[in-house]
Design goal:
The chain has 3 helices and 9 strands. The chain is of the alpha+beta class. A hairpin with a 5-residue loop joins β8 (117-129) and β9 (135-148).
């Protein structure tokens, strides 16, 4: 399925990072807003590289992905300083703004562990059904990443302090083992 420019309804994918969303220095948060190849509760999977074109366009235009509260465009609560794809998915790092009332509330809820979900707001550019009936999103126009109560993807979460670095180390080790296994399989 190919969506033409300017068409297609906005969509949201709620993701709760399995490693959690990291909150440090009171306002700095990081975590995975999307994980590749994992079916969400709506039956969608995001393919590696799905965000690349959108992120490149935002960079070229000098714009950023917005940080919203519960997908409400009237509730900007911070800024995403870094949004990138890696082997796992869409990783985000940003700052909740304490100068904004909702930002203070969000930081307090994340710090207390009461709120830990992330969700992407986007428009589907390209998608197709796979053999198991999942919709595989291969190109996405990313608009925003929100802090949310209920993420659609259970792995989309804010990481607790220190978890993200540890998680990346384990992911690097897992990649090394995967590469070795693939090398042995090729013979």
């Amino acid at each position: 399925m190919r969506m033409k420019d300017g068409f297609g309804a906005p969509e949201h994918k709620f993701h709760r990072p399995e490693a959690g969303l990291v909150l440090s220095e009171g306002e700095v948060i990081e975590g995975y807003a999307s994980v590749f190849g994992r079916a969400d509760q709506g039956g969608d999977l995001v393919a590696p590289g799905a965000y690349a074109t959108s992120l490149a366009a935002l960079t070229a235009q000098g714009r950023r992905v917005k940080m919203l509260w519960q997908h409400d465009p009237a509730e900007v609560i911070g800024v995403w300083d870094e949004v990138r794809e890696d082997a796992t998915g869409l990783w985000v790092r940003g700052r909740i703004l304490p100068e904004i009332a909702r930002g203070r509330e969000a930081a307090a809820l994340v710090a207390a562990g009461a709120l830990d979900g992330l969700s992407i707001g986007y428009r589907t550019i390209r998608a197709a059904r796979d053999g198991s009936g999942h919709r595989v999103l291969s190109e996405i126009e990313l608009w925003e990443v929100s802090l949310v109560t209920f993420p659609m993807l259970p792995e989309a979460r804010v990481a607790s302090k220190g978890e993200a670095q540890d998680d990346r180390a384990w992911q690097a080790i897992a990649r090394i083992f995967d590469e070795a296994r693939q090398s042995f399989a090729r013979g």
